[in-house]
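can u pls check wat happens w/ manganese (II) ion
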Amino acid sequence: MNKIIFHGHSFTELHLKGNKILIDPFISGNPLCDISLDNADCDFIILTHGHGDHFGDTIDIAKNNNATVIATAELAYYLKGKDITAHDMNLGGSHGFPFGKVKLTLAHHSSSLPDGTYAGEPAGVLIDSDGKMIYHAGDTALFYDMKLIGEMHRIDYALLPIGDNYTMGIDDAVKAAEFLNAETIIPIHYNTFEVIRADVDEFRRKIESIGKKCIALLPGNSIEI
Ligand code: NI
Ligand code: MN
């Protein structure tokens, strides 16, 4: 059965067509994360960008599971240099994997690795699997081309950052939901740290007021899709 499981911050686990995919697996140093490194089990890892709160424990998890990391070219080459299997892509490109088709989208943010290495452009991720379209926005500001993403793809689930300071805050994320025309919005990237505290009930009310559904998952919670 296909699922979306939230592990706190932006860390999201997908079960799609019998594959386990981890997006932005931030475990060490993530006060909200409900799983330990030993329990991080996957076939693929998808990274939106290189920042520590997204790159997280990618190296250990990829090695422990012999998983393939899907990321932008610079991040993928960095990982290949550490003997990790990686599939390099870039913005606007899509590729088919056993679990579905992945397309990297724009994200307005920055990207470097925890050791300071330049990590290319940050990305959002569209995953088309089993008739469902999932969009994980990564870290991003609101941008008008989200409208284009919504026009080109019928999005069922959009995971959008709402924590402000580093990314969109609540009002910008509500506008993003409108632009994307996604059916269900799942808030991410909030309440992990004091500086990104957000009132998720306020977000839910505002999303519902534009006629969309909001599912705020607690770490460890999942939905069947
Ligand atoms: Ni970031
Ligand atoms: Mn972040």
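The mean pLDDT is 98.
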